[in-house]
Amino acid sequence: MRLSGKRIFLCTIVLLFLIALICTAAYLKSVADYKRAVKETTLNDVDISAVPDGVYVGEYDVNFIYAKVEVTVQDGVITDITILQHKNGRGKSAEIITDRIIEEQKIDVDAISGATNSSVVIKKAVENALSEKCMQNNGIR
Hints:
- This protein is an alpha+beta fold.
- Helix content is 45%, strand content 20%.
- It has four helices and three strands.
């Protein structure tokens, strides 16, 4: 049986529509997973005064947002936080949260309005840098 040009065209359109539908569904699932990951992110209390002097690297990834930071601690105080990488979409403005962390000497500071998700990811990256496991991996303790 031979297919006419119109049938081939229609089959192609239907196939392309189904592919687009599947891709859209996969993307929407990824977005939902990312939003859930941010929402479920918890920050643990880190006793900064107990962190030995050093430079620590930490990262946190929730797919659409990723941050890698370098945290400098001297005499039990965070003296510097450098953002090494920040995949952020529209969350670039969250990068000033490092100033708040240094100023308040705690990780769980208020998020940057309009960049809440990036704020959470950066704060978690800082926490991960100063976590016991990360300090061991950086050769401390």
